[in-house]
């Protein structure tokens, strides 16, 4: 696209878009064709920067860093005072960023590689198991398992935001999310850690 086309599509000011595109081209992140006045994001960069299904998608990492920077005053104070900073006390953006960072690898590897590598686990999931996913974050891993193993039911334990993801994914009938600390997860001793 030209800078004018991108500005129109993104609802931004063309001058700023043009300057930003020129900087990205100078840095080698995009290419510029002087004859057409068009900028292109090469496929290699698109895999890392624009394709959320790619296992090398990086923007989630940048969002994690940004959330950690916002937490710097809390962490500095913790070092001074000796008080803890709980996971739940971090900047809210950290939770979505962490999920966005790990999601591409869950999608690429959890069902096809990681679960089959654990002896006996895949057979149990295919037959129908009750699964507790402790520390499930926003629920991507739990939802992927529910989609892949329809005879199993899943309870994810972590934070509140995962519930709507299960509904959107069409597995809310077999996935439940609870807010709980790992040490407080309910069960009758039947949990096996993998």
Strand content: 5-15%
Oligomeric assembly: single chain
What pattern of helices and strands is seen along the backbone? Answer: HHEEHHHHHEHEHE
Helix content: 40-55%
Tally of DSSP β-strands: 5
Class from secondary-structure proportions: mainly alpha
CATH superfamily label of the largest domain: Vaccinia Virus protein VP39
* CATH architectural name of the largest domain: 3-Layer(aba) Sandwich
Distance between the termini: 48 Å
Summary of the model, kept short:
The chain has 9 helices and 5 strands. The protein is mainly alpha-helical and 194 residues long.
Structural notes for this entry:
There is one protein chain. This protein is mainly alpha-helical and 194 residues long. It is built from nine helices and five strands; from the N terminus they run ααββαααααβαβαβ. The protein has helices at 3-10, 14-26, 43-49, 59-70, 72-81, 93-114, 121-127, 140-148, 163-169; strands at 31-33, 38-40, 130-134, 153-158, 175-179. It has a three-stranded parallel beta sheet, with helices on one face. Strands 1-2 form a two-stranded antiparallel ribbon. β1 (31-33) and β2 (38-40) form a beta hairpin. α4 runs antiparallel to α6. Mean pLDDT is 88; it is low at 190-194.
């Amino acid at each position: 696209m030209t800078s004018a086309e991108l500005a129109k599509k993104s609802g931004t000011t063309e001058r700023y878009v043009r300057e930003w595109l020129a900087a990205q081209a100078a840095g080698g992140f995009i290419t510029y064709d002087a004859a057409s006045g068009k900028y292109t994001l090469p496929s290699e960069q698109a895999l890392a920067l624009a394709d959320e299904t790619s296992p090398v998608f990086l923007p989630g990492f940048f969002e994690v860093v940004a959330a950690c920077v916002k937490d710097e005053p809390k962490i500095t104070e913790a070092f001074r005072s000796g008080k803890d900073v709980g996971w739940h006390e971090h900047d809210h953006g950290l939770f979505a960023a962490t999920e966005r960072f790990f999601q591409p690898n869950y999608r690429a590897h959890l069902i096809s590689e990681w679960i089959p590598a654990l002896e006996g686990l895949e057979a149990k999931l295919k037959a129908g198991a009750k699964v507790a996913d402790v520390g499930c974050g926003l629920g991507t891993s739990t939802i992927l398992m529910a989609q892949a193993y329809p005879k199993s039911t899943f309870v994810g334990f972590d934070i509140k935001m995962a519930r709507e993801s299960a509904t959107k994914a069409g597995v809310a009938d077999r996935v439940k999310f609870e807010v709980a600390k790992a040490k407080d997860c309910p069960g009758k001793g039947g949990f096996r850690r993998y």
